[in-house]
UniProtKB/TrEMBL annotation:
Active-site residues (renumbered): S10 (o-(5'-phospho-dna)-serine intermediate)
Keyword Cell cycle in record: no
Keyword Ion transport: no
Gene3D superfamilies cross-referenced by the UniProt entry: Resolvase, N-terminal catalytic domain
Keywords tagged on the record: DNA integration, DNA invertase, DNA recombination, DNA-binding
Signal peptide as annotated in the record: none
Residue ranges occupied by any Resolvase/invertase-type recombinase catalytic domain in the UniProt entry: 2-135
GO biological process: DNA integration
SUPFAM superfamilies for the chain: Resolvase-like
CDD domains registered for this protein in UniProt: SR_ResInv
Name of this chain's protein: Site-specific DNA recombinase
Family named by the database record: Belongs to the site-specific recombinase resolvase family.
Amino acid sequence: MTAIGYARVSTGDQDTALQLDALRKAGCDKVFEDKASGAKTERPGLADAIRYVREGDTLTVWKLDRLGRSMKHLIEIVTELEERGVGFRSITENIDTTTPGGRLVFHLFGALAQFERDLIRERTRAGLQAAEERGRRGGRQAVVTPEKLAKARQHLAAGLNVREAAARVKVGKTALYAALQQEKAAASSGSSHESYRREL
């Protein structure tokens, strides 16, 4: 079994010396490196390391966050390695998927990641349903039609404020305010033209 190391630093001015020392102490004779942020998609060093490892090898990192951009990405890489018969080891967290305990930890990670994705989907569905029940589809505010503007004016005349009137006619507060201002400006302009004609 051969231990292959992978090291990554986030910026060009950082040094991989700490990681390299830890990887060599862990028995890694060959180490691949990247100088890129965790969010960056292209990591040629990691791609080379994954291509290089063979069945029976173990890909080793200093910490879990050196390998994956996210928990989902981390699990995807380790699953791919596992399918090829390649182990994974993280020195700091003391995780080794070549052992039963290490495999159990990663199965738990996978279950938690799936649980998080399910929660996000559930919240999204609930949010869309709530928006639909309020008369808005896809989260977009309805357009202020002449009919809704007239109803909003009635609510305002009855003592409601703009926010309350907007909620009653199912439009956005900002959209209703803009429509009211536009109507006021148009009325003011019409009044000015009428006065000018009378003077003539």
